[in-house]
Amino acid sequence: LVTFFQPKLLAGKRVVVTAGPTFEALDPIRGITNHSSGKMGFAIARAAHEAGAEVTLVSGPVSLQTPRGVLRVDVKSARDMLAATLAEVPAADIFVATAAVADWRPATSAEQKIKKDGTGAAPTVAFTENPDILATVAKDERAKSGRLFCVGFAAESHDLANHAKAKRERKGIPLLVGNIGPLTFGQDDNQMMLVDANGVQELPRAPKLELARKLVGEIARRLPAQR
Ligand code: CTP
Ligand code: CA
């Protein structure tokens, strides 16, 4: 007979998830962002909480409800997201980076609204690279030793499997999830590819919450055994 007490998959674990886009200011009014809806990250936060974890969701600007029981930290820029994440990961067992972090930000952000100068000339914007949150966390001693399990996401326009394999190695993480095109921004379902040291495995198209629950299972079975 089955046992009465089945511990939840992530009972006693702490999980940090980044989600949504970042917003990189040009001036107090304007900025640069992207089409990430945050849905996949929010679904993972919800699924991890359902699995018994204590979950912190570091979210860029999105219009989604916080999953029940999840602690949410709102941020705007990539640098804010990095700071909020670094404050949370030292106590975490799992870090899942779903955020669509802006790779570049305007090199300077004007303190006042940039006005037209009347000549028809357009301003030029110089960019500078943002910190890589996932790569920064993955370099950490706890991540290197396996005590902090890091999961990355990748959206590629072409040659997903090869880009995803290369990205997993470049970031130095045990698991990378590839979004199988077409680009799924804002949609409620998704199709994913899991890339780990053993190779590639596909998760067929399904609602994001269903995929999030499967992913939580895949993460749980890859965690180092409890002593
Ligand atoms: N990521 C991050 N911080 C960044 C850029 C990316 O934490 N500044 C994370 C994303 O949340 C995702 C993973 O890194 O989990 C891969 O993001 P992606 O944009 O696919 O990869 P990049 O390394 O930025 O490479 P590129 O955009 O050139 O493909
Ligand atoms: Ca990128």
From TrEMBL:
<keyword id="KW-0479">Metal-binding</keyword>
<keyword id="KW-0456">Lyase</keyword>
<comment type="function">
    <text>Catalyzes two sequential steps in the biosynthesis of coenzyme A. In the first step cysteine is conjugated to 4'-phosphopantothenate to form 4-phosphopantothenoylcysteine. In the second step the latter compound is decarboxylated to form 4'-phosphopantotheine.</text>
</comment>
<dbReference type="GO" id="GO:0071513">
    <property type="term" value="C:phosphopantothenoylcysteine decarboxylase complex"/>
</dbReference>
<keyword id="KW-0511">Multifunctional enzyme</keyword>
<feature type="binding site">
    <location>
        <position position="171"/>
    </location>
    <ligand>
        <name>CTP</name>
    </ligand>
</feature>
<feature type="region of interest" description="Phosphopantothenate--cysteine ligase">
    <location>
        <begin position="15"/>
        <end position="227"/>
    </location>
</feature>
<comment type="function">
    <text>Catalyzes two steps in the biosynthesis of coenzyme A. In the first step cysteine is conjugated to 4'-phosphopantothenate to form 4-phosphopantothenoylcysteine, in the latter compound is decarboxylated to form 4'-phosphopantotheine.</text>
</comment>
<dbReference type="GO" id="GO:0015941">
    <property type="term" value="P:pantothenate catabolic process"/>
</dbReference>
<dbReference type="GO" id="GO:0015937">
    <property type="term" value="P:coenzyme A biosynthetic process"/>
</dbReference>
<dbReference type="GO" id="GO:0046872">
    <property type="term" value="F:metal ion binding"/>
</dbReference>
<keyword id="KW-0285">Flavoprotein</keyword>
<keyword id="KW-0460">Magnesium</keyword>
<comment type="pathway">
    <text>Cofactor biosynthesis; coenzyme A biosynthesis; CoA from (R)-pantothenate: step 3/5.</text>
</comment>
<feature type="binding site">
    <location>
        <begin position="131"/>
        <end position="134"/>
    </location>
    <ligand>
        <name>CTP</name>
    </ligand>
</feature>
<dbReference type="GO" id="GO:0004633">
    <property type="term" value="F:phosphopantothenoylcysteine decarboxylase activity"/>
</dbReference>
<keyword id="KW-0288">FMN</keyword>
<dbReference type="GO" id="GO:0004632">
    <property type="term" value="F:phosphopantothenate--cysteine ligase activity"/>
</dbReference>
<keyword id="KW-0210">Decarboxylase</keyword>
<protein>
    <recommendedName>
        <fullName>Coenzyme A biosynthesis bifunctional protein CoaBC</fullName>
        <ecNumber>4.1.1.36</ecNumber>
        <ecNumber>6.3.2.5</ecNumber>
    </recommendedName>
</protein>
<comment type="pathway">
    <text>Cofactor biosynthesis; coenzyme A biosynthesis; CoA from (R)-pantothenate: step 2/5.</text>
</comment>
<feature type="binding site">
    <location>
        <position position="167"/>
    </location>
    <ligand>
        <name>CTP</name>
    </ligand>
</feature>
<dbReference type="GO" id="GO:0010181">
    <property type="term" value="F:FMN binding"/>
</dbReference>
<comment type="similarity">
    <text>In the N-terminal section; belongs to the HFCD (homo-oligomeric flavin containing Cys decarboxylase) superfamily.</text>
</comment>
<keyword id="KW-0436">Ligase</keyword>
<comment type="similarity">
    <text>In the C-terminal section; belongs to the PPC synthetase family.</text>
</comment>
<feature type="domain" description="DNA/pantothenate metabolism flavoprotein C-terminal">
    <location>
        <begin position="10"/>
        <end position="221"/>
    </location>
</feature>
<feature type="binding site">
    <location>
        <position position="153"/>
    </location>
    <ligand>
        <name>CTP</name>
    </ligand>
</feature>
<feature type="binding site">
    <location>
        <position position="113"/>
    </location>
    <ligand>
        <name>CTP</name>
    </ligand>
</feature>
<feature type="binding site">
    <location>
        <position position="103"/>
    </location>
    <ligand>
        <name>CTP</name>
    </ligand>
</feature>
